[in-house]
Amino acid sequence: MKGKIAAVFFVVTLSIANPSWGQLGGVIDSTLNQVRGIGQTLDQQLIEPLPLRLPKLEPFALSQLPAVVDTVTHPLNSLPASLNIPALNNAVEVQVEDGWRAIERQWLMLADQSSLSLLQQVGATLIKQQEYKALDLVLVHFTVPAHLDSKAALTNILPPAQVNTLDRNHVFASQADADLASTPTATPQPIPSQAMCDNTVTVGMLDTSIDKNHPALTQAKIITQNFVDNTNNAPQYHGTAIASLLVGHSDQLRPLLPKANLYAASVFYRQSDYAQGATMLHLVDGLNWLAMQQVKVVNMSLAGPDNQILALVIDKLTAKGMIIVAAAGNEGPAAPAMYPAAYKKVVAVTATDVKQQIYRWANQGDYIDFAALGVNVLSAKAGGGEGHESGTSVASPVVAAAVACVYEQFGGQAEVILAYLAQQAVDLGQKGKDPVFGNGLITRPL
Asked: Which residues are the active-site residues?
């Protein structure tokens, strides 16, 4: 069409420039009519809807969608690819395989002298070798040269059996969102009138430091141990919130366990004003200490990657009678499983709101065991006052409290305890256990 318009323009121009071309007027009029006709035809074709031909899509599971952890990140929690950590003697936290984070070129392995010698021969540097008596194991903590900083590279050096006890010094994150007190659409949480139980129980937690001077916590029985550089810059926000849910008391707060002895291992360092991380090594430190204190129920409101050292430690502790309750994760329903919650021997907890609707960012999967209130929950704020928190972190201590309440009653038998809790739970979603709510909602009192 462009060519025909150009031709007409050329003829019209010549006609104007030279009157002798006027005899061609009839030809021009005819040509112009043809052009108009073509234009009308094109307009009609463009206006008429084209048949929609989309490829047929086969049914797919949510798990096939891109991981939310890779596509949606809360701007306040965003971290640079490389982050210097003063609390860890200026070690560097970096992004590694599958988007997880770890301390740069640091690895952990069950102690084996021959394997350590092999590693040192190729340039690895021993940081320390430490015995964990309550865990019946000795760990080697070491760094490797950049060209050996992968599981594949180390597999080529170490015996196969040793590779199965080797992993990065991964970084784990707390699983609670920022303060929601200013959110106008948030549904207020009613002040609970009753505790989960009034038994004198012992419960442990791995979290940030706790502001024990907060008015809601001054009368609580809290025993703490710090495993990260003890500075005034240590994060306290998350740990204070979780501790207040368990044992805090104020005009607005009612503790889940008013007569509990709370053992709190501080394992987190500050990543930013809004985020904190805990290394795999510090998780081992904290779990070993809790086991040494004879703590049998432990809350872990944190999550991260599958780690062979973590799996090994949890196997040892659960075999000794410890029940670990963990947050399922806040990366969304299509995200991959997060750990330790996804381990079979760990009780995984998701979060709901007061209307018993699932928390929109909660991880989902067959490993979910129970749900509990975890949206817009009032808790103590480090430094004073109270705020609202959301996330599976906030729901996890509810189930940990329930486990602690019946631990002695059922002789510490995990299967019996979990079966009893499943009977007490409010069945939500699909009938029976499902990947969204697990066995159902645990509420207070038990």
From this structure: 207, 238, 393
Query: Which residue range(s) make up the domain with 146?
Result: 75-171
Domain end residue (candidates: 155, 171, 187): 171
The set of residues, in sequence order, having a beta carbon less than 8 Å from that of 259 and lying 6+ positions away, is 198, 199, 200, 201
For residue 435 the two structure tokens come to 């990947």
pTM of the full structure: 0.83
Q: Which residues pair with 128 in a beta bridge?
A: 141
Are 416 and 361 in contact by the 8 Å Cβ rule? The answer is: no
Q: Is the pLDDT of residue 238 over 60?
A: yes
265: Cβ contacts below 8 Å, ≥ 6 apart: 204, 205, 206, 207, 224, 225, 227, 285, 286, 287, 289, 290
The tens digit of pLDDT for each residue in 393-407 reads: 999 999 999 999 999
Whether the CB-CB separation of 197 and 139 falls below 8 Å is answered with no
Closest CA to 286 of 314, 259, 265, 310: 265
| Spatial separation of the C-alpha atoms in residues 94 and 136, rounded to whole Å | 30
Phi, psi of 362 (to 5 degrees): -70, 140
Q: Phi then psi for 294, rounded to 5 degrees?
A: 65, 30
| Cis amide bond preceding 159, omega within 30 | no
CATH of the domain at 362: 3.40.50.200
Residue 356 and residue 237 share a domain: yes
